[in-house]
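Work Package 4 report. The design task specified in the project plan requires that, given a folded chain encoded as structure tokens, an amino acid be chosen for each position. We show below one input record used in the internal validation round.
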């Protein structure tokens, strides 16, 4: 991401969302994969069509997990001396940005679970970026 910086603008933080951002999106496909595994096992013990259905559902679940993880991997947070930028998308890259000169304050919010697991939310006016990895120096970067 070094492209598109204004003269004198410096990157202060560049990171992808914390891994905890994957927990909620992965819950459903992983539960589906567990059920599909049960069908595959039942197919070997009871009737082979159950195993076929289970294998198809397992493949569908694997594709869903791949898509979710790829989307997470292709999301990037960049905090520069002049703006807060989130770049996301796989086939079509998109960006959402806010100029730091237009927001009254840049805030760092971190709940109990965030403190334990090492993530928080950066808030710039109405622009919130959740699951930012807390590398110990985030509050100092926001000053």
């Amino acid at each position: 991401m070094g492209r598109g910086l204004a003269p004198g603008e410096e990157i202060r933080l560049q990171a992808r969302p914390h891994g905890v951002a994957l927990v909620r999106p992965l819950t459903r496909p992983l539960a589906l994969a567990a059920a599909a595994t049960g069908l595959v096992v039942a197919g070997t013990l009871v009737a082979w069509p159950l195993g076929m259905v289970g294998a198809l559902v397992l493949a569908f679940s694997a594709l869903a997990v791949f898509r979710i993880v790829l989307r997470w991997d292709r999301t990037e947070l960049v905090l520069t001396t002049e703006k807060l930028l989130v770049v996301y998308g796989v086939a079509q890259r998109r960006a959402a940005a806010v100029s730091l000169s237009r927001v009254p304050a840049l805030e760092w919010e971190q709940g109990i679970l965030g403190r334990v697991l090492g993530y928080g939310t950066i808030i710039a006016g109405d622009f919130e970026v959740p699951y930012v990895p807390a590398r110990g120096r985030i509050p100092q970067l926001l000053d």
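The chain has two domains: 11-18+76-141, 23-71. Validation will be extended to a larger panel in the next phase.
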